[in-house]
Amino acid sequence: MKKSFLFFTMILTLVVLAACGQSNKDGANGEKTGDNKVLTMATSADFAPFESRDPSGKVEGFDIDLANAIAKELGYKLDIKDMKFDGLVGALQAKRVDMVLAGMSATEKRKQNVDFSTAYNHSGEMFITLKDSKIKTIDDLKGKTVGVQLGTIQEEGAKTLQKKVDFTIKPLDNATTLIQELLSNRIQVAYMDKSVATGYVKEQGLAGFDDPTTSSPGMAVAFPKGSDLTDDVNKVLKDMEENGKLQELKDKWLKDQQ
Ligand code: ARG
After folding, report:
1. Are residues 118 and 222 part of one domain?
2. Pocket residues for ligand 1 (CB within 6 Å)?
3. Structurally, how many domains does the chain consist of?
4. Would you state the torsion angle of the CA atoms of residues 92, 93, 95, 99, taken in this order, to the nearest 10 degrees?
5. 134 CA to middle of ligand 1, Å?
6. Global pTM value
7. How far is the CA of 57 from the centre of ligand 1 (A)?
8. Degrees, nearest 5: CA angle 203-58-258
């Protein structure tokens, strides 16, 4: 009886150990050994042309192509996790993911919690409205409701601007929802990244004006603090810049935005 219990315990321990080894191999820690190296990347697929879902539900966009190129170059298989933008920095801090590509601007504030690669793209900010709107300048925002995506630099920027012009901020989880809210008149303005906004303006026949007050930092890949991947990815980005591959991706996804 005793013996068989011991045997059972030993088998159980072995099974548990094997399972741990397995999850380690496939987990979000950029394992460098084994033939099943997986790089877990998180994004927020509500931000075309950087990341969105195609009609079949597949995540696509500039950041996705770039992440695939990075993974391929470094010999990893890419695993993509789609989450709310507001949760991405936390996922990196908890080391649940190896890197984030989500059109994320490398701000000083975020740098306190995560590391960034060199910038791979620059954009600006834009206020978008319905086509016949009378809102044409920042002063016209007075008394209006401005939608922003939760956790973005646009949310921060709107708070700063609010000290000068009196308007209401409506923070929303999802960038696509901003457009739906605008189209159904629940907000009068959406404050967004310019490259993304330009796409909506064309697609939905909207109007808009540039934010003259901001100069946002470039978009970069984000990593958990101290990650070894930062240097590796910087090397890949440098190569892709030199051999024209980065420009090719910009031509493919950002042509209408530039
Ligand atoms: N560039 C802005 C920021 O870093 C917005 C990024 C939003 N990205 C997204 N995938 N929804 O705050």
Report:
1. yes
2. 44, 46-47, 51, 85, 102-105, 149, 152-153, 175, 193
3. 2
4. 20
5. 27
6. 0.87
7. 20
8. 40
How distant is the alpha carbon of residue 1 from its chain centre? Answer: 57
Please state, in angstroms and rounded to a whole number, the distance separating the CA atoms of residues 135 and 238: 42
For residues 67 and 177, membership in a common domain is answered with: no
Q: For residues 74 and 55, state if they share a domain.
A: yes
In a domain, 201, yes or no: yes
The atom number, within ligand 1, closest to the CA of 156 reads 12
For residue 98, the enclosing domain spans: 31-122+218-253
CATH number at residue 205: 3.40.190.10
The pLDDT tens digits of the residues spanning 40-69 come to 999 999 999 999 999 999 999 999 999 999
| Preceding omega of 49 cis (within 30 degrees of 0) | yes
Low-confidence spans in the chain with pLDDT less than 70? 1-35, 258
Express each pLDDT in 11-22 by its tens digit.
444 444 444 444
Query: Which of 114, 193, 219 is the pocket-test mutation for ligand 1 (most atoms within 8 Å of CB)?
Result: 193
